[in-house]
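User: Please predict the structure of the protein below. I'd like the answer in structure-token form so I can feed it into my own downstream comparison script.

Assistant: Understood. Taking the following sequence of 426 residues as input:
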Amino acid sequence: MDRKTYRSRNRNSQIHQTLMKQDRIFNTLLLMLLPSLVISFAANSIILASLTVISIFQINRTAAKTFFRKYLYFNFFFLAVLLGLFLDVLSGTDFDSRQVIKRAAFILMPFIILHAKKHYQRMALQVFVYFLSFMSFILILLGFVRSVINKNKILYGNWDSKTTEAFYTQDMLINWGELSYKRLFLFLDMHPSYYALFSAKAILILLFTTYIRIKKPIKWILVTLHAIMIILLSSKAGLASLFIILIPAFFLNKKVKYKLMGTVVIMTLIISMVSVPSTQLRLKRAYASLTSENTELQSSSSSERMTLWRSVKDFSAKELLTGVGIQSSRSKIHLLTGIDKNMHNQYLQVLVNSGVAGCILLISFLLLPLAYNRGFFTKMFIAVLLLNLMMENMLDRAWGVVFVSFFYGLLIFGYLNFSNEKSLKM
């Protein structure tokens, strides 16, 4: 072997080792992507950026044409955001680059999913479900311990207000305030509605895919654990998601025994919802907001939502047709309602931001996975997401952006086959 050949082989060997090392780093970071979303925004951003750097320069040229066509469709919602920013600029408002940065996952995630091997895509689902199950168990356990220690005490947490003081001081065996959404995330910067969405999706993966291969009793223990977490969080969209998931899970099965089991499960779910003080109080306030003509008298998130949603009628037909821009709509809503918050409804928010064109782009994006993956899991995933978007601007915050872009990336660009899944893995 001459010296030139030796150097060439040595150089090729070094390149191969470098690529192998990059793959190991990429696979590890991919498995950490969703867990980091629960723990830290900063860590999640670093992981997302690192995965992108590794993957974007290794895109397969033979798949480039198909990829970039899908990529354009995948960014329909991002185009709606750009439309809203463009309208802001036209109205004389400065371009808000933060609106682009916090939705960067829509731009980057397809490259990551395309580069990820099928085995690690499957492992990412498994790690997500197991990690979230562990987190939920720890949060509930710590909450229960604090509920015993802090009996009959009024304690404030990340998401507290005066609305729950009524049941904090009631003479009960434990302090249910410690097990409410206001105190469960005492050590985490996490919004209850987003965690409830994560838990609902974990249940979907457990019930409607074969990618979590565990014994049935353990599977149902995990499903129960996530259901309990959703009930304690008192997220109205999360609670509704449980019904959307569990009713088809049992009642689409032709066997009578599963329908009887489903009846018992649904009744147990309802009883649990009205028995947990924090959830009971949230549901009562939501009902009062819906039935009361004077929503200003109701100090609850439901009454705020109703006020925000009703403000849409104060926009002119032209404004709703074309949109008024992201910052301009926020200012006008604040002026109309006195509430300095977003619409808490993704559809209405996009309507006032980007007009009818923006809504068409949003709906097209949300239904896009059905063009590539029409399995039962895909339909259920979209149904639960559509419901949650009615109650929160899930696609305007990092929790929702990264989470939705990851799963939509799997359904559109991924290698896992969700189309042949049965309706329920009992």
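That's the full token string. The mean pLDDT is 85.
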